[in-house]
Design brief:
19 helices, six-stranded mixed sheet, 2 domains, 470 residues, Rossmann fold, alpha/beta, 38% helix
């Protein structure tokens, strides 16, 4: 049997949303409420009517209802998932290039501007595991050890990075396990798409986020990761810290640190990192089929945010906008078409945590010091329902951003009042963007070679066929 795709792929995940956002961008369509229909988004929009505790509980239960049961993992067919991915694009036309690899919100704008599709390496399979202690990653690891073998046996071309984050994903891991699957071989559906839909000689771009994380090896193609990039360091997830103990006590835990297994190696970070074995197969395909191969290497997810923002600022200005409004996107809250229409400059932050706030602040400081400050900044903060360790509130964003702009900082309505459980923002950010006036017309496509040159000139490591761009 094969499990239905709607159960095999998480709708709430970064990779799924960014894939859908890229498809919408290439069609020139907006991307409201994470690509869900208005009917699907209605309960989310109305969630503000619930008090905070029931609102958080409903979010966790609905999210936990996604995915497969433990005895269904062997029914997941990743070849069918790859077919579903390429189905996000018009397969009757040809494209000037393609981006394959790590999930990255800034890449949505790179793809939207150049007309390149994005084919992700990593997808999330949620496996239902209700009523579990979020502070016992050791128990989660043993669960994965028991239920993953049928999944890996059926899908020999993937590696499993089982991730458990009791801080940022605290609500969800009470109800599910996060099985992040990375292709280590080029799926057949991707091969056909590249052969049929790339223009002759069009570049193949590998987006290689070199983020890593300590892991515990379970099998040849199975590792376990306690924690994730965000507010806590890897060491804090493993060894604990004073601030983690305080967080756990505030959340009613009986533990003073996470009960994490001892790591025995380093792997690509589960959600954002790139598994290099895929790169070898993509390189072979490109060489055999007359396409150049370009690596865009990133030390961490937001390394692309500043360069892409600067590129998009030049682009909207060329289309007649002032380029004085910055749109800070967050996690899966991304919309290339609305940013382009409104002349907003998109800056992607991977999560509302201290490191993201500091990088956004540094970007604003840099452009202000160069005599080109932004006037207004619209900030979209993704809700995860928990004030996790290192999480940054709307007031923190406003305080850090205001000194470096000349106008105002604004949030999607309800964010300040209901943060971090402001789930209604997921259904309202699209309407907030629609209300902004149109500032650009007939934005010109960005040639792929020019886009790569701009990234290279802005300190991104870009290598084509082994040669570093300078």
């Amino acid at each position: 049997m094969t499990i239905e795709l709607r159960h095999a792929v998480a709708e709430f995940d970064s990779a799924t949303a960014i894939l859908s956002a890229t498809g919408a961008a290439l069609r020139g369509e907006p991307f409201p409420h994470l690509g869900q229909s208005a009917k699907q988004a209605f309960p989310v929009r109305m969630s503000w009517l619930l008090p905070r505790s029931p609102r958080r509980a409903a979010y966790a239960i609905l999210g936990g209802a996604e995915g497969v049961s433990a005895d269904e993992t062997g029914e997941v067919d990743m070849a069918a998932v790859a077919e579903w991915i390429v189905g996000h694009y018009d397969t009757t036309r040809r494209y000037p290039g393609v981006v394959i690899g790590a999930t990255n919100g800034a890449a949505v704008h790179l793809c939207g501007a150049t007309g390149m599709p994005f084919l992700p390496q990593t997808l999330l399979l949620p496996v239902r595991r209700p009523r579990r202690d979020p502070d016992r990653p050791d128990e989660a690891m043993e669960f994965g050890r028991r239920v993953a073998p049928p999944l890996l046996e059926r899908n020999p071309d993937v590696v499993l990075h089982h991730m458990h984050d009791g801080s940022q994903d605290r609500l969800m891991v009470r109800h599910m396990s996060y099985f992040r699957l990375k292709w280590c071989a080029l799926p057949e559906a991707y091969r056909r798409f590249l052969a049929d839909c790339l223009e002759p000689g069009a570049p193949v771009i590998l987006l290689a986020d070199e983020s890593t994380w300590p892991t515990t090896r379970i099998g040849d193609r199975h590792v376990f990761q306690a924690g994730a990039q965000g507010g806590l360091t890897a060491d804090e997830y493993i060894r604990g810290s004073t601030r983690l103990t305080q967080f756990l006590r505030e959340n009613g835990s009986h533990h003073d640190r996470f009960q994490a297994p001892e790591p025995d190696g380093i792997s690509a970070e589960a959600e954002w990192g790139f598994e290099p074995r895929l790169g070898t197969q993509v390189a072979e395909w490109a060489k055999q089929n007359g396409h150049s191969l370009t690596y865009v290497r990133l030390p961490e997810p937001e390394a692309l945010s500043h360069p892409v923002a600067q590129s998009m600022r030049r682009r909207v200005r060329a289309a007649g906008a002032s380029g004085d409004r910055l749109l800070v996107e967050s996690f899966a809250m991304v919309d290339h078409s609305e940013a382009q229409r409104t002349g907003s400059v998109p800056y992607w932050s991977f999560f509302p945590v201290e490191s993201s706030l500091q990088q956004a602040k540094t970007y604003l400081e840099t452009v202000a010091a160069a005599g080109d400050p932004y006037h207004d900044v619209d900030v979209m903060l993704f809700p995860n329902g928990v004030s996790s360790v290192g999480a940054t509130s709307p007031s923190q964003w406003a305080q850090q951003v205001l000194p470096h702009i000349t106008g105002h900082v604004r949030f999607v309505s309800g964010t300040a009042q209901r943060w971090p459980a402001h789930f209604d923002a997921l259904a309202k950010y699209g309407r907030a963007l629609r209300m902004l006036p149109t500032r650009t017309h007939d934005v010109e496509p960005l040639p792929v070679d020019r886009a790569l040159a701009e990234l290279s000139s802005d300190r991104v490591r870009v290598e084509t066929d082994g040669q570093l761009h300078v």
